[in-house]
Amino acid sequence: MSVADVKKNSDQRMQKSIETLKADLSKVRTGRAHTGILDHVMVDYYGSPTNITQVANVTLIDARTIGVQPWEKKMLSTIEKAIRDSDLGLNPSSQGDMIRVPTPPLTEERRKEMVKLVKTEGEGAKIAIRNIRRDANESLKKMLKEKECSEDDERRAQDDIQKLTDKFVAEVDKLLAEKEKEVLTV
User: Fold this and answer.
1) pLDDT exceeds cutoff 90 at 161
2) Rounded CA gap, 33 and 30, in Å?
3) Which residues contact 101 (CB under 8 A, 6 or more apart)?
4) Per-residue pLDDT for 168 more than 80?
5) DSSP state of 31
6) Which end of the chain is less crowded, N or C, counting CB atoms within 10 A of the terminal residue's CB?
7) What is the DSSP letter of 72?
8) Do 106 and 149 form a contact (C-beta atoms < 8 A)?
9) Cβ neighbours of 23 (radius 10 Å)
10) 111 torsion bin: left (phi>0), alpha (psi -120 to 50), beta (else)
11) Contact assessment for residue 163 and residue 129, using Cβ atoms and an 8 Å cutoff
């Protein structure tokens, strides 16, 4: 493994941390409806837990309502129960062969809880990025010890990895600020 490989590997892993954070933040509910909040709802499909998107078409009806249309009519009540039993605090209602899921506006207290959750997610991403930096620095020290690179190369690579870490931590802060603003907007 070369110094360039260590840097490239670190960059890729930090990018994955950012992608994971974006996915986690997309599940945090704001005042508006979006289909992503139902992504982790599991439905009992003939005895096996299945993702809701595998058994129904999930769409937006309007800014505050999600529409769930099962592909099999007999799954209607099962899907409705799964949404109601999830930790999202949503109250779905059946209308013919479709389930309407209104998203209630968030209270001020709930918004503050959501901001705390967002900050916790962000802190987790920062910790992951710092752990990647630590792993890279350990790899560089090991390479130096085994005389696979010079001290100057190791020092330069550590500086580059620190710059990379700073860049990704700043990106995490930017994502958190955007999501916090989105959550607090009434």
Assistant:
1) yes
2) 7
3) 33, 38, 65, 66, 67, 68, 83, 90, 91, 92
4) yes
5) S
6) C
7) S
8) no
9) 12
10) alpha
11) no
The DSSP 8-state label assigned to residue 104 in this structure reads P
176 burial type by CB count under 10 A (0-12 exposed, 13-18 middle, 19+ buried): buried
User: Which residue has tokens 């289909």?
Assistant: 35
Residue type (1 letter), 169: V
How far is residue 88's CA from residue 28's CA, in Å, rounded to a whole number?
10
Length of the chain counted residue by residue: 186
Residue appearing with tokens 């916790």? 120
Supply the pLDDT for residue 49: 87
pTM for the model stands at 0.69
| Sheet containing 93-95, strands listed edge to edge, beginning at the edge strand earlier in sequence | 56-62, 65-70, 98-102, 93-95
Question: Which residues, in sequence order, are CB contacts of 108 under 8 Å at separation 6+?
Answer: none
- Identify the H or E element spanning 182: helix 151-184
CA 130/CA 95 separation, integer angstroms: 49
Over residues 120-138, the pLDDT tens digits come to 889 999 999 999 999 999 9
CA 94 to CA 115: how far, in whole Å?
A: 32
| CA–CA dist 3, 133 (Å, integer) | 13
Cα separation, 142 vs 62, whole angstroms: 56
Nearest to 33 by CA among 102, 114, 92: 102
